[in-house]
């Protein structure tokens, strides 16, 4: 299912201590881990069975 990213903290250059992921908030209030390149306003695809990020649309 596709969702719009409501909140995504800015990526900090060189911050790969968390395997290159950050916690984002979707338009429906759900939070999940996503790659550092995801920004506020992006549309992403989420696997609704696992709640995991799949891809940016």
From TrEMBL:
Residues 1-20 are annotated as: Disordered. It comes from the Bacteria. Pfam families: Elong-fact-P_C. GO terms for cellular component: cytosol. GO terms for molecular function: translation elongation factor activity. Residues 1-56 form the Elongation factor P C-terminal domain. Gene3D superfamilies: Nucleic acid-binding proteins. InterPro entries: Elong-fact-P_C (IPR015365), NA-bd_OB-fold (IPR012340), Transl_elong_fac_P/YeiP (IPR020599). GO terms for biological process: peptide biosynthetic process. The keyword Translocase does not apply. Keywords: Elongation factor, Protein biosynthesis. PANTHER family: ELONGATION FACTOR P, ELONGATION FACTOR P (EF-P) FAMILY PROTEIN. Belongs to the elongation factor P family. This is Elongation factor P. It comes from Candidatus Nomurabacteria bacterium GW2011_GWA2_35_80.
